[in-house]
Recover the amino acids of this structure.
């Protein structure tokens, strides 16, 4: 099954090709416009990026700010920061979208389905009756909610959490304490 409706893919390809060929997960948080980049929240050592080819509305990735390609290279501080941001993210999605469950996980290496070597943890909200998580790996799903809507919903939900502020770049700043 091919993806039937994904206009943002075109935008993504265009954006990627007109800038450098470096790592997108290093480049996007440095670009200075979090809404354009689809970065919805930042912690001290990690950030939350909407997947531009989402499996479901609210599909995001938790990404260490440092260019790390393997979980074994993360420092203790980065591990704690990342896992706390995963907790915050699940909370934000729960409050905004009320899913029935979640999938979280990482695809390591090309054979594991990882398309970008910079480490990233998927968080995918699930509803009763949607299809299998394996579709994430094949990018096969009809998307029913525009990315901009998901972004706005999650931004508001993060902003309602305690110990948050707003970054100059636009994302919600989440304290990891
Ligand atoms: Zn990187």
């Amino acid at each position: 099954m091919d993806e039937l409706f994904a206009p943002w893919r075109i935008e993504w390809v265009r954006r990627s090709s007109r800038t450098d060929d470096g790592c997108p997960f290093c480049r996007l948080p440095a670009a200075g416009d979090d809404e354009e980049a689809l970065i919805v929240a930042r912690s001290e050592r990690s950030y939350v990026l909407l997947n531009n080819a989402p499996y479901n509305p609210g599909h995001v990735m938790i990404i260490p700010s440092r260019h790390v390609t393997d979980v074994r290279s993360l420092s203790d501080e980065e591990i704690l920061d990342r896992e706390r941001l995963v907790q915050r993210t699940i909370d934000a999605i729960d409050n905004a979208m009320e899913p029935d469950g979640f999938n979280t996980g990482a695809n390591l290496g090309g054979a594991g389905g990882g398309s970008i070597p910079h480490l990233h943890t998927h968080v995918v909200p699930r509803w009763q009756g949607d299809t299998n998580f394996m579709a994430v790996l094949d990018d096969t799903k009809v998307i029913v909610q525009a990315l901009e809507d998901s972004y706005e919903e999650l931004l508001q939900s993060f902003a309602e959490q305690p110990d948050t502020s707003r970054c100059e770049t636009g994302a919600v700043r989440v304290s990891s304490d």
Notes: Helices lie at 7-18, 24-30, 34-37, 76-97, 135-138, 147-159. Confidence is low (pLDDT under 50) at residues 1-20, 136-144.
